[in-house]
Amino acid sequence: MVRVCNYNDKELLAEKVGEYIIECQDKALKDQDSQFNIAISGGSLVNVLHKCLVANKKLASRVKWSQWQLYFCDERLVPLDDEDSNYGAFKKAVLDPLMHNGDHLNLGPTVFAINESLVHQKDSQNEKIAQEYESLLPADGFDLLLLGCGPDGHTCSLFPGEKHKYLLQEAHKKVAWCHDSPKPPSDRITFTLPVIADSRNIAFVAEGSSKQDIMHQIFDLQDESLPTALINRNYGSRVTWFTDEDAFSKVQSNH
Ligand SMILES: O=C1O[C@H](COP(=O)(O)O)[C@@H](O)[C@H](O)[C@H]1O
């Protein structure tokens, strides 16, 4: 059964997400040589990460950056300094401010970005970006995936609908090229369901009234044509949703 943590206040929501991340980190780090394998999403999640890992000093002091190996659940195939890049957004919101805060980042985190030199070339290079990224993933799965939820029910770059069904049906590749994305930019790479299946903890973060209708479809109607609802059904015991009241207010069923 999926766990839902719903809050009235956005600041409190960010703090709870931060506490959860630290909890997963501490569980993963058995000693000084172990690593915390985490993959994050882009979009609105990045601001939440700024609030809980940078601005919240109490939580920030508990982050063991040097032991983090950080990946992206999906990435837009644009240069890393493009405003659409998930890596670029994370760098701006978290890595850069940490650098300016002092020496906390001297030993990490290790951040795995796409091979930028292959961006904006032929389609075959898009496949290659996905393959190369897959080759970097941790062999024994992720300790934590931090996922977003678009107003259409997409997560990572797994979009609902016939046209993108090939991504949800992918059983072998762990990272796939998503083309003709309904949300720009058109070319992306995305984790597939096998990566989600292998992850020890999965958290969604969804806030704001633009998510109200989709929350109703996911939680009340349990519409499994939506990638987010499918993940709830398949991996529910490892799934936690962090939501705010604006996003969750149309959900009628108990959680
Ligand atoms: O395009 C994307 O959208 C989703 C959802 O973003 P949000 O701004 O609605 O939270 C995001 O999780 C994903 O990483 C991103 O590439």
UniProtKB/TrEMBL annotation:
<dbReference type="GO" id="GO:0005737">
    <property type="term" value="C:cytoplasm"/>
</dbReference>
<protein>
    <recommendedName>
        <fullName>6-phosphogluconolactonase-like protein</fullName>
    </recommendedName>
</protein>
<keyword id="KW-0963">Cytoplasm</keyword>
<dbReference type="GO" id="GO:0017057">
    <property type="term" value="F:6-phosphogluconolactonase activity"/>
</dbReference>
<dbReference type="InterPro" id="IPR037171">
    <property type="entry name" value="NagB/RpiA_transferase-like"/>
</dbReference>
<dbReference type="Pfam" id="PF01182">
    <property type="entry name" value="Glucosamine_iso"/>
</dbReference>
<comment type="pathway">
    <text>Carbohydrate degradation; pentose phosphate pathway; D-ribulose 5-phosphate from D-glucose 6-phosphate (oxidative stage): step 2/3.</text>
</comment>
<dbReference type="InterPro" id="IPR039104">
    <property type="entry name" value="6PGL"/>
</dbReference>
<dbReference type="GO" id="GO:0006098">
    <property type="term" value="P:pentose-phosphate shunt"/>
</dbReference>
<comment type="similarity">
    <text>Belongs to the glucosamine/galactosamine-6-phosphate isomerase family. 6-phosphogluconolactonase subfamily.</text>
</comment>
<feature type="domain" description="Glucosamine/galactosamine-6-phosphate isomerase">
    <location>
        <begin position="9"/>
        <end position="241"/>
    </location>
</feature>
<dbReference type="InterPro" id="IPR006148">
    <property type="entry name" value="Glc/Gal-6P_isomerase"/>
</dbReference>
<dbReference type="InterPro" id="IPR005900">
    <property type="entry name" value="6-phosphogluconolactonase_DevB"/>
</dbReference>
<keyword id="KW-0378">Hydrolase</keyword>
<dbReference type="GO" id="GO:0005975">
    <property type="term" value="P:carbohydrate metabolic process"/>
</dbReference>
